[in-house]
Specification:
L-amino peptidase D-ALA esterase/amidase, 29% helix, six-stranded mixed beta sheet
């Protein structure tokens, strides 16, 4: 499809959206709870004030959901380590690869130099290059960057081609600019939003999820925050309980939806912290996030692109003490696991390209299973 055809598609969709009766367009997850809100407690460490990646001071998140007609279900999510010019105020960073079947733009330079010089964007697989181009255009247009001759945009992806017409590559520069412009601290929208609009995870509707943990290092309290874009296979585990298997058994006994558990897929993990860590320690921190993914049922399949990007917002001398690092490792594992569960709890059912539909995780039956296993903290 040509750029002109894409523009016509968006114009037509905007008109149809304006004329559609209420309730026809995008479903929202406002009425669906986060896991902790209904007594699902992951791990032992205390959470941050908002239980989100934005609990790390300065970190901002913005989304642009792209929901067009009956065929486009995708979007952009932007993660900003701070609100300034990233090229002027770079942050220490590292990227760990769990399984490399993916398209992560900017990986090699981050790991060569140990720093991020742009915000991180997440989107759908075939739009990753358009998002990177738009990010580059946006940052080069800043007056402070007028003499810049090299820049390393960092853009990750998962494949939302089941629910979205991925070959259209619908992400436009204005989508990227809106995700960047609307990025804020505080509460983060989760579920079927932004880069999570068309994703699936562990047999159910996946999406964006976030969580955080607080740890003490050398007498100072720090935060480790995680944001995930979930789109991977496996059999769902919640707080150590085989919920996916139990839901499938219920479906066999009484009909209903049975989740698939063996599909390929991917996950993007973004880890933020204000612990002063150098590149090598951030690489180790990123690596541990995959343990959190494993706790939810992932086996990192052959066709999965599993990446973790970790950055520190601190400019203080780096902490390398083993005991301190172990506390940070525990925090990132717990926060990653809970971020995944939040992505599932908040995601709504979505019908998309070709009439295909992915159901949201059924909250009531899931809580029943957890209650029976003694893993639900009653509210």
């Amino acid at each position: 499809m040509t750029n002109a055809a894409v523009s016509r598609l968006f114009a037509t969709a905007a008109l149809l959206h304006a004329l559609a009766p209420a309730g026809v367009a995008q479903e929202t997850g406002e009425d669906r709870p986060r896991a902790r809100d209904v007594g699902v407690i992951i791990g032992r460490l205390p959470v941050g004030s908002g239980n989100a990646i934005t609990d790390v001071p300065g970190v901002r998140v913005g989304h642009r959901t792209v929901w067009v007609g009956d065929s486009i279900r995708t979007g952009v999510t932007a993660i900003l380590p701070h609100g300034g010019n990233m090229f002027e105020r770079r942050v220490r960073a590292a990227i760990s690869v769990g399984n490399g079947f993916g398209k992560l733009v900017g990986l090699s330079q981050v790991n060569e130099l140990g720093e991020l010089e742009t915000p991180v964007l997440l989107t759908g697989t075939l739009s990753v290059f358009r998002a990177a181009d738009a990010l580059l255009d946006t940052l080069l247009s800043l007056p402070a960057n007028r003499d810049v001759r090299s820049m390393n945009p960092v853009v990750g992806e998962t494949n939302d081609g089941f629910l979205s017409d991925i070959r259209v590559r619908p992400i436009q520069p204005e989508h990227v600019r809106e995700a960047l412009r609307t990025a804020t601290g505080g509460a983060v929208a989760e579920g079927s939003v932004g880069a999570g609009t068309g994703t699936r995870a562990l047999g159910w509707k996946g999406g964006i999820g976030t969580s955080s943990r607080r740890v003490r290092v050398e007498g100072t309290e720090y935060t480790v925050g995680v944001l995930v874009q979930t789109n991977y296979g496996g059999s769902l585990m919640v707080a150590g309980v085989p919920v996916g298997r139990a839901l499938a058994e219920r479906a066999e006994r009484g009909g209903g939806v049975s989740p698939e558990s063996d599909r390929d897929g991917s996950v993007m993990i973004v880890v933020a912290t204000d612990i002063p860590l150098a590149h090598r320690e951030l690489e180790r921190l990123a690596l541990r996030s995959f343990l959190g993914i494993g706790r939810t049922g992932s086996f990192m399949s052959h066709g999965s692109g599993d990446y973790a990007i970790a950055f520190s917002t601190s400019e203080a001398p780096a902490v390398r003490d083993g005991g301190h690092m172990s506390r940070a490792f525990a925090a990132v594992v717990e926060a990653t696991e809970e971020a995944v569960i939040n992505s599932l709890f908040k995601a709504t059912s979505v019908t998309g390209h070709g009439g295909r539909r992915t159901e949201a995780l059924p909250i009531g039956p899931t809580l029943d299973i957890l209650r029976a296993a003694g893993r639900l903290e009653e509210r």
